[in-house]
Amino acid sequence: MPEIRFQVQWPDGSQEICYSPSLVVKDYFVPGESYGLEDFLERSRTALKIASERVQAKYGFPCSRALGQLHQIEYRAAQYTSLDTPQVSLLHFIE
Known about the structure:
The protein has two helices and four strands; from the N terminus they run E-E-E-H-H-E. Helix 1 (about 35-60) packs antiparallel against helix 2 (about 65-80). The longest helix has 23 residues, at about 35-60. By secondary structure, the protein is of the alpha+beta class. It has a four-stranded antiparallel beta sheet. It starts with a strand and ends with a strand. The protein has a domain at about 60-85.
């Protein structure tokens, strides 16, 4: 199963490299695009849950790393909910 990493920039300018065990994230994000915080969260939840389900279908168990990445994204996003219009940018995919 091809895995992929993607680099995001949070509303405060900090950057983070995120992980997905599946290329499905390419269906939900476009390099160079910015997303409202809630939109970014929903896209991340959908993509990483699908990725984990693909691992489960192939190997018989969900991908704990994908679910852990989702947890980390949700944790980071919670820090920016008080901002007026927080944006998260998808900088690029790392294959």
